[in-house]
Write a structure and sequence with these properties.
Largest interface: A-B, 4 and 4 residues
Shape of chain B: globular
Strand order of the largest sheet of chain A: 1-2-3-5-7-10
Shape of chain A: globular
Number of helices of chain A: 12
Strand content of chain B: 15-25%
Radius of gyration of chain B: 19 Å
Distance between the termini of chain A: 37 Å
Largest sheet of chain A: 6 strands, mixed
Number of helices of chain B: 10
Strand content of chain A: 15-25%
Structural class of chain B: alpha/beta
Order of helices and strands of chain A: EEHEEHHHEEHEEHHEHEHHHH
Helix content of chain A: 40-55%
Oligomer: heterodimer
Chain lengths: 255, 261
Protein backbone atom coordinates (compact mmCIF):
# COMPACT_ATOMS: atom_id res chain seq x y z
CA UNK A 1 0.00 0.00 0.00
CA UNK A 2 1.30 3.40 -0.88
CA UNK A 3 2.13 5.72 1.97
CA UNK A 4 2.59 8.64 -0.37
CA UNK A 5 0.15 10.60 -2.49
CA UNK A 6 1.72 11.93 -5.67
CA UNK A 7 0.10 14.71 -7.66
CA UNK A 8 1.59 16.81 -10.41
CA UNK A 9 0.92 20.54 -10.66
CA UNK A 10 2.38 21.88 -13.91
CA UNK A 11 6.06 20.98 -13.62
CA UNK A 12 5.95 20.46 -9.87
CA UNK A 13 5.52 17.06 -8.23
CA UNK A 14 3.74 17.25 -4.88
CA UNK A 15 4.54 14.35 -2.57
CA UNK A 16 2.17 14.08 0.41
CA UNK A 17 3.22 11.82 3.27
CA UNK A 18 0.10 9.85 4.09
CA UNK A 19 0.30 7.73 7.21
CA UNK A 20 -2.05 9.76 9.41
CA UNK A 21 -2.58 6.84 11.80
CA UNK A 22 1.18 6.85 12.55
CA UNK A 23 1.57 10.65 12.58
CA UNK A 24 3.39 10.27 9.26
CA UNK A 25 6.26 8.49 11.02
CA UNK A 26 9.01 7.73 8.50
CA UNK A 27 9.41 3.98 8.63
CA UNK A 28 11.63 2.15 6.17
CA UNK A 29 8.76 1.47 3.77
CA UNK A 30 7.89 5.17 3.58
CA UNK A 31 11.53 6.18 3.04
CA UNK A 32 11.83 3.53 0.35
CA UNK A 33 8.74 4.83 -1.46
CA UNK A 34 10.00 8.37 -1.11
CA UNK A 35 13.35 7.40 -2.63
CA UNK A 36 11.59 5.66 -5.52
CA UNK A 37 9.28 8.62 -6.14
CA UNK A 38 12.21 11.03 -6.21
CA UNK A 39 14.27 8.77 -8.48
CA UNK A 40 11.36 8.58 -10.91
CA UNK A 41 10.97 12.37 -10.74
CA UNK A 42 14.69 12.85 -11.35
CA UNK A 43 14.33 11.00 -14.66
CA UNK A 44 11.06 12.67 -15.64
CA UNK A 45 11.64 15.68 -17.89
CA UNK A 46 8.13 16.95 -17.18
CA UNK A 47 9.07 17.52 -13.52
CA UNK A 48 11.37 20.40 -12.62
CA UNK A 49 10.87 20.61 -8.85
CA UNK A 50 9.39 18.59 -5.97
CA UNK A 51 7.43 19.60 -2.88
CA UNK A 52 7.15 17.29 0.12
CA UNK A 53 4.38 17.88 2.64
CA UNK A 54 2.39 16.05 5.33
CA UNK A 55 -1.02 16.88 6.74
CA UNK A 56 -2.25 19.84 8.77
CA UNK A 57 -1.15 18.37 12.12
CA UNK A 58 1.93 16.41 11.20
CA UNK A 59 4.62 16.84 8.61
CA UNK A 60 6.29 13.77 10.05
CA UNK A 61 6.56 13.07 13.75
CA UNK A 62 9.77 11.02 13.63
CA UNK A 63 10.99 7.57 12.73
CA UNK A 64 8.99 4.45 13.47
CA UNK A 65 9.99 3.69 17.06
CA UNK A 66 8.80 0.09 17.02
CA UNK A 67 10.86 -0.59 13.93
CA UNK A 68 13.87 1.02 15.60
CA UNK A 69 13.42 -0.76 18.92
CA UNK A 70 13.60 -4.17 17.23
CA UNK A 71 17.14 -3.54 16.03
CA UNK A 72 20.08 -4.46 18.26
CA UNK A 73 23.63 -3.28 17.64
CA UNK A 74 24.47 -5.59 14.70
CA UNK A 75 21.07 -4.96 13.09
CA UNK A 76 21.50 -1.21 13.52
CA UNK A 77 25.00 -1.44 12.08
CA UNK A 78 23.64 -3.10 8.95
CA UNK A 79 20.48 -1.00 8.76
CA UNK A 80 19.30 -0.07 5.27
CA UNK A 81 18.16 3.35 6.44
CA UNK A 82 21.42 5.26 5.81
CA UNK A 83 21.29 4.08 2.19
CA UNK A 84 17.69 5.19 1.86
CA UNK A 85 18.57 8.65 3.19
CA UNK A 86 21.55 8.77 0.82
CA UNK A 87 19.22 8.04 -2.09
CA UNK A 88 16.95 10.92 -1.08
CA UNK A 89 19.99 13.14 -0.92
CA UNK A 90 20.98 12.45 -4.52
CA UNK A 91 17.79 14.02 -5.94
CA UNK A 92 19.23 16.58 -8.35
CA UNK A 93 16.26 18.95 -8.72
CA UNK A 94 14.96 21.57 -6.28
CA UNK A 95 13.30 19.89 -3.30
CA UNK A 96 11.01 21.97 -1.11
CA UNK A 97 9.49 21.02 2.26
CA UNK A 98 6.08 22.50 3.10
CA UNK A 99 5.70 21.94 6.84
CA UNK A 100 2.47 22.10 8.79
CA UNK A 101 2.34 20.84 12.36
CA UNK A 102 5.13 18.71 13.79
CA UNK A 103 8.40 17.98 12.02
CA UNK A 104 10.22 15.99 14.68
CA UNK A 105 13.20 13.66 14.66
CA UNK A 106 13.43 12.01 11.25
CA UNK A 107 10.69 14.41 10.07
CA UNK A 108 12.90 17.36 10.97
CA UNK A 109 15.88 15.64 9.34
CA UNK A 110 13.87 15.28 6.15
CA UNK A 111 13.16 19.02 6.25
CA UNK A 112 16.88 19.66 6.71
CA UNK A 113 17.68 17.46 3.72
CA UNK A 114 15.44 19.56 1.47
CA UNK A 115 16.92 22.57 -0.34
CA UNK A 116 14.25 24.88 0.88
CA UNK A 117 11.69 24.72 3.65
CA UNK A 118 8.61 26.81 4.31
CA UNK A 119 6.14 26.39 7.13
CA UNK A 120 2.64 27.07 8.38
CA UNK A 121 2.30 29.35 11.40
CA UNK A 122 1.82 26.47 13.80
CA UNK A 123 4.71 24.33 12.60
CA UNK A 124 7.09 22.89 15.21
CA UNK A 125 10.60 21.67 14.52
CA UNK A 126 12.55 19.50 16.90
CA UNK A 127 15.06 16.71 17.37
CA UNK A 128 13.74 14.97 20.51
CA UNK A 129 15.93 11.86 20.07
CA UNK A 130 17.89 12.70 23.23
CA UNK A 131 14.74 12.17 25.29
CA UNK A 132 14.73 8.54 24.12
CA UNK A 133 18.37 7.85 24.95
CA UNK A 134 19.47 8.14 21.33
CA UNK A 135 20.70 10.91 19.05
CA UNK A 136 19.69 12.06 15.58
CA UNK A 137 20.94 9.52 13.07
CA UNK A 138 20.03 10.94 9.67
CA UNK A 139 21.91 14.20 9.47
CA UNK A 140 20.25 16.04 12.34
CA UNK A 141 23.41 16.96 14.21
CA UNK A 142 25.25 17.90 11.03
CA UNK A 143 22.73 19.76 8.92
CA UNK A 144 21.01 21.64 11.74
CA UNK A 145 24.20 23.22 13.05
CA UNK A 146 25.12 24.30 9.52
CA UNK A 147 21.87 26.16 9.06
CA UNK A 148 21.03 27.57 12.49
CA UNK A 149 24.48 27.76 14.12
CA UNK A 150 25.99 26.17 17.21
CA UNK A 151 23.93 27.81 19.94
CA UNK A 152 20.44 26.93 18.77
CA UNK A 153 21.46 23.56 17.28
CA UNK A 154 23.05 22.49 20.57
CA UNK A 155 20.08 23.74 22.54
CA UNK A 156 17.63 21.82 20.36
CA UNK A 157 19.62 18.60 20.19
CA UNK A 158 20.74 18.49 23.84
CA UNK A 159 17.41 19.58 25.36
CA UNK A 160 15.18 17.84 22.84
CA UNK A 161 12.88 20.87 22.93
CA UNK A 162 11.27 21.96 19.70
CA UNK A 163 11.01 25.45 18.20
CA UNK A 164 8.09 27.20 16.53
CA UNK A 165 7.88 28.56 13.00
CA UNK A 166 8.86 32.09 14.03
CA UNK A 167 12.09 30.95 15.70
CA UNK A 168 12.80 28.63 12.77
CA UNK A 169 12.45 31.57 10.40
CA UNK A 170 14.73 33.81 12.42
CA UNK A 171 17.32 31.06 12.71
CA UNK A 172 17.34 30.34 8.98
CA UNK A 173 15.82 26.86 9.10
CA UNK A 174 12.90 27.97 6.94
CA UNK A 175 12.51 30.79 4.44
CA UNK A 176 8.84 31.72 4.78
CA UNK A 177 5.85 31.40 7.09
CA UNK A 178 2.34 31.16 5.69
CA UNK A 179 -1.09 30.67 7.31
CA UNK A 180 -1.52 26.92 7.86
CA UNK A 181 -4.39 26.48 5.42
CA UNK A 182 -2.50 28.28 2.64
CA UNK A 183 0.91 26.71 3.27
CA UNK A 184 0.70 23.99 0.60
CA UNK A 185 -0.91 26.30 -1.99
CA UNK A 186 1.73 28.97 -1.46
CA UNK A 187 4.57 26.45 -1.51
CA UNK A 188 3.28 25.07 -4.80
CA UNK A 189 3.16 28.62 -6.16
CA UNK A 190 6.75 29.13 -5.03
CA UNK A 191 7.83 25.81 -6.56
CA UNK A 192 6.08 26.77 -9.80
CA UNK A 193 8.09 29.99 -9.82
CA UNK A 194 11.28 27.95 -9.51
CA UNK A 195 10.12 25.49 -12.13
CA UNK A 196 9.75 28.22 -14.73
CA UNK A 197 13.53 28.69 -14.73
CA UNK A 198 15.91 26.68 -16.90
CA UNK A 199 16.03 23.11 -15.53
CA UNK A 200 19.78 22.69 -16.03
CA UNK A 201 20.49 26.02 -14.36
CA UNK A 202 18.36 24.95 -11.39
CA UNK A 203 20.31 21.72 -11.09
CA UNK A 204 23.66 23.47 -11.41
CA UNK A 205 22.62 26.06 -8.81
CA UNK A 206 21.48 23.31 -6.45
CA UNK A 207 24.73 21.42 -6.88
CA UNK A 208 26.76 24.55 -6.27
CA UNK A 209 24.75 25.45 -3.15
CA UNK A 210 25.27 21.97 -1.75
CA UNK A 211 29.00 22.07 -2.34
CA UNK A 212 29.13 25.21 -0.25
CA UNK A 213 28.42 22.98 2.77
CA UNK A 214 31.11 20.46 1.90
CA UNK A 215 34.26 22.04 0.48
CA UNK A 216 36.47 25.01 1.47
CA UNK A 217 35.63 28.39 -0.07
CA UNK A 218 38.39 28.38 -2.70
CA UNK A 219 37.40 24.92 -3.95
CA UNK A 220 33.74 25.95 -3.89
CA UNK A 221 34.47 29.03 -5.98
CA UNK A 222 36.31 26.93 -8.55
CA UNK A 223 33.48 24.41 -8.75
CA UNK A 224 30.94 27.20 -9.04
CA UNK A 225 32.87 28.67 -11.95
CA UNK A 226 33.03 25.25 -13.66
CA UNK A 227 29.27 24.83 -13.35
CA UNK A 228 28.83 28.39 -14.57
CA UNK A 229 31.01 27.58 -17.58
CA UNK A 230 29.09 24.38 -18.31
CA UNK A 231 25.84 26.33 -18.59
CA UNK A 232 27.46 28.44 -21.33
CA UNK A 233 27.06 25.42 -23.57
CA UNK A 234 23.30 25.18 -23.09
CA UNK A 235 20.58 26.38 -25.44
CA UNK A 236 18.56 27.56 -22.44
CA UNK A 237 21.24 30.08 -21.51
CA UNK A 238 21.04 31.58 -24.97
CA UNK A 239 17.26 31.66 -24.69
CA UNK A 240 17.29 33.15 -21.19
CA UNK A 241 19.56 36.04 -22.07
CA UNK A 242 17.87 36.66 -25.45
CA UNK A 243 14.41 36.70 -23.82
CA UNK A 244 15.63 39.20 -21.22
CA UNK A 245 17.12 41.51 -23.86
CA UNK A 246 14.02 41.22 -26.04
CA UNK A 247 11.75 41.80 -23.01
CA UNK A 248 9.70 38.63 -23.51
CA UNK A 249 9.17 35.51 -21.41
CA UNK A 250 11.79 32.79 -21.87
CA UNK A 251 10.84 29.36 -23.21
CA UNK A 252 13.22 26.80 -21.77
CA UNK A 253 13.65 23.34 -23.22
CA UNK A 254 16.02 21.79 -20.69
CA UNK A 255 19.00 21.53 -22.98
CA UNK B 1 -21.01 25.94 45.35
CA UNK B 2 -19.59 25.94 41.86
CA UNK B 3 -16.98 28.63 41.29
CA UNK B 4 -17.95 28.99 37.65
CA UNK B 5 -21.44 28.84 36.19
CA UNK B 6 -21.79 27.88 32.57
CA UNK B 7 -24.84 28.19 30.39
CA UNK B 8 -25.01 27.53 26.67
CA UNK B 9 -28.04 29.00 24.90
CA UNK B 10 -28.53 29.38 21.16
CA UNK B 11 -24.83 29.46 20.36
CA UNK B 12 -23.81 31.67 23.29
CA UNK B 13 -21.71 30.30 26.14
CA UNK B 14 -22.14 32.49 29.20
CA UNK B 15 -19.50 31.98 31.86
CA UNK B 16 -20.32 33.53 35.22
CA UNK B 17 -17.49 33.86 37.71
CA UNK B 18 -19.27 32.72 40.84
CA UNK B 19 -17.48 33.55 44.07
CA UNK B 20 -19.62 36.58 44.92
CA UNK B 21 -18.55 36.68 48.58
CA UNK B 22 -14.96 37.18 47.37
CA UNK B 23 -15.89 39.52 44.50
CA UNK B 24 -15.33 36.60 42.11
CA UNK B 25 -11.57 36.72 42.65
CA UNK B 26 -9.46 33.98 41.14
CA UNK B 27 -8.33 30.88 42.96
CA UNK B 28 -6.91 27.74 41.41
CA UNK B 29 -10.32 26.02 41.25
CA UNK B 30 -11.83 28.92 39.31
CA UNK B 31 -8.89 28.90 36.89
CA UNK B 32 -9.31 25.18 36.32
CA UNK B 33 -13.05 25.45 35.78
CA UNK B 34 -12.55 28.29 33.32
CA UNK B 35 -9.85 26.37 31.44
CA UNK B 36 -12.20 23.40 31.09
CA UNK B 37 -15.01 25.55 29.71
CA UNK B 38 -12.70 27.30 27.27
CA UNK B 39 -11.59 23.93 25.93
CA UNK B 40 -15.26 23.19 25.33
CA UNK B 41 -15.73 26.57 23.61
CA UNK B 42 -12.68 25.94 21.42
CA UNK B 43 -13.85 22.51 20.30
CA UNK B 44 -17.62 22.93 20.00
CA UNK B 45 -18.56 24.52 16.67
CA UNK B 46 -22.10 25.17 17.88
CA UNK B 47 -20.74 27.72 20.40
CA UNK B 48 -20.25 30.93 18.42
CA UNK B 49 -19.88 33.59 21.11
CA UNK B 50 -18.54 33.58 24.68
CA UNK B 51 -19.68 35.97 27.41
CA UNK B 52 -17.73 36.36 30.64
CA UNK B 53 -19.46 38.05 33.54
CA UNK B 54 -19.50 38.05 37.33
CA UNK B 55 -22.07 36.96 39.91
CA UNK B 56 -23.27 39.43 42.52
CA UNK B 57 -22.13 43.04 42.68
CA UNK B 58 -18.58 42.65 41.35
CA UNK B 59 -17.10 41.44 38.05
CA UNK B 60 -13.78 40.08 39.27
CA UNK B 61 -11.32 41.30 41.89
CA UNK B 62 -8.32 39.57 40.28
CA UNK B 63 -6.19 37.20 42.30
CA UNK B 64 -7.67 36.10 45.62
CA UNK B 65 -4.92 37.14 48.01
CA UNK B 66 -6.15 34.67 50.63
CA UNK B 67 -5.54 31.88 48.17
CA UNK B 68 -1.84 32.65 47.99
CA UNK B 69 -1.28 32.21 51.74
CA UNK B 70 1.12 35.08 51.82
CA UNK B 71 3.12 34.90 55.03
CA UNK B 72 4.82 38.27 55.56
CA UNK B 73 7.62 36.51 57.46
CA UNK B 74 8.04 33.51 55.16
CA UNK B 75 10.24 33.17 52.10
CA UNK B 76 9.31 35.30 49.06
CA UNK B 77 6.64 33.61 46.94
CA UNK B 78 7.14 32.99 43.22
CA UNK B 79 4.25 34.98 41.78
CA UNK B 80 5.64 34.33 38.31
CA UNK B 81 4.54 30.75 38.64
CA UNK B 82 0.81 31.43 38.85
CA UNK B 83 1.17 34.07 36.12
CA UNK B 84 2.94 31.54 33.92
CA UNK B 85 0.74 28.55 34.58
CA UNK B 86 -2.70 30.13 35.15
CA UNK B 87 -3.11 33.72 34.00
CA UNK B 88 -0.97 33.81 30.87
CA UNK B 89 -2.52 30.71 29.30
CA UNK B 90 -5.98 32.16 30.02
CA UNK B 91 -5.16 35.49 28.36
CA UNK B 92 -3.61 33.74 25.36
CA UNK B 93 -6.56 31.41 24.94
CA UNK B 94 -9.09 34.23 25.03
CA UNK B 95 -7.06 36.14 22.44
CA UNK B 96 -6.62 33.08 20.24
CA UNK B 97 -10.22 31.85 20.51
CA UNK B 98 -11.64 32.04 17.00
CA UNK B 99 -14.96 33.37 18.22
CA UNK B 100 -15.92 36.70 19.75
CA UNK B 101 -15.52 37.04 23.51
CA UNK B 102 -17.60 39.62 25.37
CA UNK B 103 -16.62 40.85 28.82
CA UNK B 104 -19.87 41.90 30.50
CA UNK B 105 -18.43 43.95 33.35
CA UNK B 106 -21.28 44.13 35.82
CA UNK B 107 -19.35 45.69 38.71
CA UNK B 108 -15.84 46.34 39.97
CA UNK B 109 -13.05 44.80 37.89
CA UNK B 110 -9.76 45.01 39.75
CA UNK B 111 -6.23 43.78 39.16
CA UNK B 112 -6.14 40.79 36.81
CA UNK B 113 -9.95 41.05 36.72
CA UNK B 114 -9.60 44.43 35.03
CA UNK B 115 -6.81 43.50 32.62
CA UNK B 116 -8.58 40.27 31.68
CA UNK B 117 -11.80 42.12 30.92
CA UNK B 118 -10.00 44.73 28.84
CA UNK B 119 -8.34 41.93 26.84
CA UNK B 120 -11.71 40.58 25.65
CA UNK B 121 -12.92 41.49 22.18
CA UNK B 122 -15.88 43.58 23.24
CA UNK B 123 -16.18 45.09 26.70
CA UNK B 124 -19.58 46.23 27.92
CA UNK B 125 -19.80 47.76 31.38
CA UNK B 126 -22.77 48.60 33.52
CA UNK B 127 -22.84 52.19 34.73
CA UNK B 128 -21.88 51.18 38.28
CA UNK B 129 -18.85 49.19 37.10
CA UNK B 130 -15.27 50.38 37.53
CA UNK B 131 -11.76 49.35 36.58
CA UNK B 132 -9.02 49.40 39.19
CA UNK B 133 -5.36 48.84 38.31
CA UNK B 134 -4.71 47.73 41.86
CA UNK B 135 -1.33 46.11 41.20
CA UNK B 136 0.90 49.11 41.93
CA UNK B 137 -0.62 49.56 45.37
CA UNK B 138 0.74 46.14 46.38
CA UNK B 139 4.14 46.65 44.84
CA UNK B 140 3.22 44.56 41.79
CA UNK B 141 3.09 45.01 38.03
CA UNK B 142 -0.11 44.92 35.94
CA UNK B 143 -0.18 41.36 34.63
CA UNK B 144 -2.52 39.32 32.44
CA UNK B 145 -1.60 41.63 29.58
CA UNK B 146 -2.05 44.87 31.53
CA UNK B 147 1.16 46.57 30.45
CA UNK B 148 0.59 45.48 26.85
CA UNK B 149 -3.04 46.51 26.67
CA UNK B 150 -3.11 49.80 28.54
CA UNK B 151 -0.80 51.81 26.25
CA UNK B 152 -2.60 50.42 23.22
CA UNK B 153 -6.07 51.19 24.57
CA UNK B 154 -5.49 54.39 26.50
CA UNK B 155 -2.28 55.84 25.08
CA UNK B 156 0.99 56.10 26.95
CA UNK B 157 0.16 59.03 29.22
CA UNK B 158 -3.09 57.57 30.50
CA UNK B 159 -1.60 54.08 30.70
CA UNK B 160 1.18 55.38 32.95
CA UNK B 161 -1.29 57.30 35.10
CA UNK B 162 -3.57 54.29 35.48
CA UNK B 163 -0.80 51.77 36.12
CA UNK B 164 1.38 53.87 38.43
CA UNK B 165 -1.36 55.54 40.48
CA UNK B 166 -3.56 52.46 40.69
CA UNK B 167 -6.69 54.57 40.91
CA UNK B 168 -10.23 53.66 40.10
CA UNK B 169 -11.55 54.37 36.63
CA UNK B 170 -15.31 54.67 36.27
CA UNK B 171 -17.05 52.82 33.46
CA UNK B 172 -18.08 56.15 31.95
CA UNK B 173 -14.49 57.41 31.96
CA UNK B 174 -13.32 54.10 30.45
CA UNK B 175 -15.81 54.55 27.65
CA UNK B 176 -14.84 58.21 27.14
CA UNK B 177 -11.18 57.17 26.86
CA UNK B 178 -11.96 54.42 24.39
CA UNK B 179 -10.89 51.58 26.69
CA UNK B 180 -14.22 49.81 26.34
CA UNK B 181 -16.98 49.52 23.79
CA UNK B 182 -20.06 50.66 25.69
CA UNK B 183 -21.54 51.71 29.03
CA UNK B 184 -25.11 50.64 29.65
CA UNK B 185 -27.53 51.63 32.39
CA UNK B 186 -27.76 48.98 35.07
CA UNK B 187 -31.42 48.32 34.32
CA UNK B 188 -30.68 47.53 30.67
CA UNK B 189 -27.35 45.83 31.19
CA UNK B 190 -28.23 42.15 31.00
CA UNK B 191 -30.69 42.64 28.12
CA UNK B 192 -28.07 44.56 26.11
CA UNK B 193 -25.42 41.90 26.74
CA UNK B 194 -27.79 39.14 25.73
CA UNK B 195 -28.88 40.93 22.57
CA UNK B 196 -25.30 41.58 21.51
CA UNK B 197 -24.22 38.00 22.24
CA UNK B 198 -27.19 36.58 20.33
CA UNK B 199 -26.38 38.82 17.40
CA UNK B 200 -22.73 37.71 17.30
CA UNK B 201 -23.73 34.05 17.58
CA UNK B 202 -25.62 34.29 14.27
CA UNK B 203 -22.82 36.02 12.36
CA UNK B 204 -20.11 34.47 10.11
CA UNK B 205 -18.03 33.10 12.98
CA UNK B 206 -15.13 31.91 10.82
CA UNK B 207 -14.77 35.40 9.35
CA UNK B 208 -15.04 36.99 12.79
CA UNK B 209 -12.27 34.69 13.99
CA UNK B 210 -10.06 35.83 11.12
CA UNK B 211 -10.81 39.47 11.98
CA UNK B 212 -9.71 38.82 15.58
CA UNK B 213 -6.47 37.26 14.40
CA UNK B 214 -5.82 40.05 11.91
CA UNK B 215 -6.35 42.77 14.52
CA UNK B 216 -4.03 40.90 16.85
CA UNK B 217 -1.36 40.59 14.15
CA UNK B 218 -1.63 44.32 13.43
CA UNK B 219 -0.28 45.10 16.90
CA UNK B 220 3.20 44.13 15.79
CA UNK B 221 3.12 44.26 11.98
CA UNK B 222 4.23 46.95 9.57
CA UNK B 223 1.67 48.16 7.01
CA UNK B 224 3.28 46.01 4.31
CA UNK B 225 3.16 42.91 6.51
CA UNK B 226 -0.41 43.61 7.52
CA UNK B 227 -1.48 44.03 3.88
CA UNK B 228 -0.11 40.55 3.28
CA UNK B 229 -2.06 39.23 6.27
CA UNK B 230 -5.23 40.82 4.88
CA UNK B 231 -4.62 39.22 1.48
CA UNK B 232 -4.07 35.79 3.05
CA UNK B 233 -7.05 36.03 5.36
CA UNK B 234 -9.28 37.29 2.55
CA UNK B 235 -8.26 34.18 0.58
CA UNK B 236 -9.29 32.01 3.52
CA UNK B 237 -12.52 33.95 4.12
CA UNK B 238 -13.40 33.72 0.43
CA UNK B 239 -13.37 29.94 0.72
CA UNK B 240 -15.89 29.93 3.58
CA UNK B 241 -19.48 28.81 3.22
CA UNK B 242 -20.69 31.93 5.00
CA UNK B 243 -19.15 34.17 2.35
CA UNK B 244 -21.08 32.36 -0.38
CA UNK B 245 -24.21 32.49 1.73
CA UNK B 246 -23.70 36.22 2.32
CA UNK B 247 -23.34 36.90 -1.39
CA UNK B 248 -26.31 34.74 -2.41
CA UNK B 249 -28.48 36.30 0.29
CA UNK B 250 -27.48 39.78 -0.85
CA UNK B 251 -28.25 38.99 -4.49
CA UNK B 252 -31.54 37.32 -3.59
CA UNK B 253 -32.43 40.20 -1.24
CA UNK B 254 -33.08 37.86 1.67
CA UNK B 255 -31.55 37.69 5.17
CA UNK B 256 -28.44 35.46 5.26
CA UNK B 257 -28.37 32.25 7.29
CA UNK B 258 -24.78 31.98 8.50
CA UNK B 259 -23.50 28.71 9.90
CA UNK B 260 -20.16 29.95 11.13
CA UNK B 261 -18.15 27.84 8.69
Amino acid sequence: MSQLILTQHDKVLLITLNRPEARNALDNATLQQLAEALEAAANDASITACVITGNTRFFAAGADLREMAEKDLPATFNDLRPQLWARLNTFPKPLVAAVNGYALGAGCELVLLCDLAVAGENAQFGLPEIKLGIIPGAGGTQRLIRCVGKALASRMILSGESIGAQTALQAGLISDIYPDELCVDYTLALAKTLSRHAPLALQAAKQSLRQAQEVPLQAGLIQERQLFTLLAATADREEGIAAFLEKRPAHYRGC
Amino acid sequence: METLLCEVTRGVMTLTLNRPDRLNSFNVALHQALAKRLTQAEQDDSIRCVVITGAGRGFCAGQDLNDRNVDPNGPAPDLGESVETLYNPLVKRLAALRKPVIAAVNGVAAGAGATLALGCDIVIASRQASFVMAFSRLGLVPDSGGTWLLPRLAGRARAAGLALLGGKLSAEQAEAWGLIWQVVDDSEFSATVEQLAQHLATQPTYGLGLIKQALRAAETNTLAQQLDVERDFQRLAGRSRDYREGVSAFLAKRPPQFTGK
